[in-house]
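In line with agreed milestones, the collection of sequences with tokenised folds has grown. One record among many is set out beneath this paragraph:
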Amino acid sequence: MISAAINSNGYIAGMTWRGSKAEIQYPIISSGEWSMGVTAEMKSGHLSHAGVVVIHESAVEIRITAVNTGGSLCRCARLRYVSGFDMLMVKHPEYLEKFMPTTIRMERDHAWSVFGTPSGKWIALVTPNAIDGFEIHYDNSKRPISRNGFRSGGHQINTVSFDLINSVDKRPSRCGDSQDVFLPGESRTWTFYIVPLGSAGELAQTVVRYARVPHLVWRQSGAMPGHALVAQVFSPRGNAPEVTIPHGGSDLVVRTGSPLVVSDDVEVRDVRIDVASKTDLVGRDVPVTVSVGGRSVSANGYVFDSWDSYVLCASSYASGRGRPAVTKVCEASMPIFSLIGAQRIAPGKHREGLIGGFLDDELFQSGYLPNGEPRMNRERIQNHSCTIDICRETWLATRDERWLHRAVVLADYLMNCQGDDGGYYAFGKTLHYTCVYYIAKSLIELGDCLSIASHASSGEKADGLLAQSRKVLKSAAAAIEDLYRRGTDVGTEGLPCYEDGAISCAALQLALWSFRTGDRKYSNLAAELMEGHGCLEWRGPDATTNGATVRFWESFWALGWRNCLNTPHGWSAWTAYAWHSLYLSTGRIEYFERFTNTLASCLHLINTRQGELHFCFSPELHLWDSNGIEYNGERFLTSIRPGMYEEGGSETHEIIKLLMDTLLFQGYVYHDGSDWIGVNVSLSHGPDGLMVTPCSPRISTVYFNKTHQPSGCIARLSSSGGRMIQHGDP
């Protein structure tokens, strides 16, 4: 049941409802500077505007009417509806009840948005009318939680506004031109519905119900050639949607299932878009249009290029920018991951020289002392965690033990930064840093490499490596226990805001430990964290952003742009890591789908066709630089400072590291309830059971999901050079 307080101007001053998830009342409209209202900016003439609020049992209806009351043409620069949703997150645990702008989507004839809280509350805001844009209002005030006393620069968000008319903004191609001219006496009305949702899963039918349009939800927004893009299409009941691919040709075949009734007024159909095995669509988007009765939704899926192509593209881009640098941030070193990955799959002398020059002449001369301990940036312990990962990847590529020794020295340094509670701390053990990057994960994987090296050695050397492995893993175990006790209270770099990187890094480390130990308490908490993290995951019909994290930090620090979402950004890879680890620890196929959806959005930043790496994609319609100059939005952004390695492009190489850790050398087999699915492997049935054949000699590990497998199924690898790891619940 919804209740609301209406002020003297007819706008909502406060609003509560009893949610279906928690039977308590909670506010969604702030009562301060950003309270709900309508503002207008004119070019010429006079425009009268008024709002009417109607309270229904399951929604609030807001009607905004604008009238040209003059006798001549009226030109409106901007007519804006300020939502007033309270989004300012400044303190734990209060911010768990604050809303985030999870997704905002404009179409030609309607728009919708969804807002979520970390605690799991959801609101949809739907309009059956076209609007011209939106703006996220960032909190740029000087607050004590801001970095070094400077303005927060987009570390927090106040609220969001919707532009009913915006005559200067450049809208996406799927949207029409702004109708900013009113004839004498002309009147227009926009209707918005604020709808509380029991879960994020109710969004699709809510959009259909209140906008009377179809709505597409991807299950798999990215697909390899020979596989399928998979979605569900919701539509008004009794109205069959038309799914078309304007430029698909014979390479794409649409298959639509029979309708299933969702409610009295909504039905849903499964849709598959089969991608030909041989196609020139690799690395490209697949535009899709879904129409019902003249109203439509635009979408796009993505056809994956080969994993090698992304690695080689990123490596070539890194080579073109010269040798990576050692600076105050570990991001500067990250191009080395792309160079190492490319060297493992396509060795080359020039690349070998770049890697060796960086490691020997830059990293371990400028950054570290001869004994391996940090020379600079000692308190930025995430830098040293990243360096451990660099050493580990170099050892995997070369089996040169000096890199393990370097990593061990740094592991000892990090373990000296461990508090009594098990957490890793920076700055004299004053700031909890386990989830700034993913320090426990780095140590867990180092422990595995030390164990592997011990089995390849003998005598005292083997004993020493194994002892060091156990020491490292014991430290990581204590850090994981600390994360388990903390739950959502992990913070990031000393700031108490709900930041998606810290939450996803907490979840991925917990889920990874659950996979290793089999203890479900860690994966249960990881799943709970990622459910809350959903309020920071863009969702919608566009594979460019679907599943990517809503980041709003990096554009300020890297590009000097105060107001800009980064969706996706290189750190979105951490969300994919979390879903991947949850998949391994639980066997739930939906987590693998979430992993591939986030991966599809991330890989949009690596343009294999043009050899480019982007810094991020902005789905916003309004962008400003540090001088207050406005730029048009919804586009890819690349660092505007060539050669800059601090922040602003190098983070994208984290996506390559994700590929190296999950897909470049790994295969997957699972049963989806109707058939066997293989990723990076081919499957065949024989008298001895299911035969699994890696698609490349590089596939050294195949993860076989026992969940949903037919009883009595036996699976075998066709070669003896790899290993099969079973996971999930039979």
About this structure: Residues 459-486 form the longest helix (28 residues). The chain has 14 helices and 38 strands. The CA atoms of residues 141 and 213 lie 40 Å apart.
